[in-house]
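The passage that follows is intended for readers who have already worked through the single-chain material. We present the inputs for a multi-component assembly, then the predicted structure in tokenized form, and finally a short commentary. You are encouraged to pause after the input and sketch how you expect the pieces to fit together before reading on.
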Amino acid sequence: MENTEAKKRIFSGVQPSGNLTIGNYLGAIKNWTTLQDDYECLYCVVDQHAITVRQTPADLRRRTYEIMAIYIACGLDPVKNIMYVQSHVPAHVQLSWVLNCYTMFGELSRMTQFKDKSAKNADNINAGLFTYPTLMASDILLYQTDLVPVGEDQRQHIELTRDIANRFNSVYGETFRVPEPYITKGAKIYSLAEPAKKMSKSDENVNAYVSILDKKDDIIRKFKRAVTDSDTCVCRAEGKDGINNLMTIYSCFTGKSDEEIEREFAGKGYGDFKAAVGEVCAESLDPIRSEFDRLMKDKAYLEGIFKENSEKASYLARKTLSKVYRKVGFVQI
Ligand code: TYM
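Having made your guess, compare it with the prediction:
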């Protein structure tokens, strides 16, 4: 299946379900900005995924605007890329119904995110939480996507997407392009409080994560309090989860290698290193926060982007959806 455009296509998305962290930034959004010149990119605010866990409606609405503002503030160009909101393009859920019928109960039962989220939301293990990965597969397959830039935690969902695409193609002939994951160095940023655990925007402990919109003083304080070990050497090694994580964060923000970082902090203590990580993080996020504040005052501008881009996305999505409907045997009128 060739995309008609010369450039390869990228699809990725973020759920508007909490304050975006530097995990979301370094694992996903920052990489998207480097890909936007060489690929045809769709970047989605996946609001329909967010309601698999209970959301306060007003918060969900506000966060949907916020994520779009963050995308733009981080440097994504809403003219060059198709940046839109999932619920504005009905083809996502339309395709997901079809794909649900080509996804096995056993496959969905094995998804680690489903197991984690079911454990955290024991009173609300709804069907949407279970079939979440087929909606994600629809997001990706609808656009004949080549590459999916995500953090490590999404790898299993992309593997499943590939399996679903291959299964459908083997029954009906080439219909979907089979996408590849694109996973880089910042793909797993860990909690500052419990460095064996992923940094998460839904963590109850605000000191465990740094939000993209945190103020400088808070960022510096959170890094200062970051849990490390009783050693003193700033170097990457097994068992030094906290320091390893801080080295990854420092490296993602500065572009420095582990060797360069080890040389820079040779003979210095953890205190100096933590202060340096805090500084470089705050410095990188400061312009994003100012631009975010400016954009959030201009709702009409953001709504213009929602509208224009959802039309572009819908146009592409309809092509795949009608092909799928034809192949499975739905009558077209
Ligand atoms: P979400 O909203 O949880 O996270 C958005 C992106 O951020 C990455 N990420 C991290 N990367 C590194 N370290 C971390 N601690 C960290 N936490 C989050 C995630 O891997 C993701 O790339 N299911 C997806 C959203 C989605 C999607 C899609 C993504 C829906 N449809 C289609 C790609 C393609 C999710 O829950 O991401």
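Commentary: The two ends are 25 Å apart (CA to CA). The pocket of tryptophanyl-5'AMP is lined by residues 11-15, 23-24, 27-28, 46, 49, 136, 139-140, 148, 150-151, 153-154, 186-189, 198-199 (CB under 6 Å). How closely did your sketch match?
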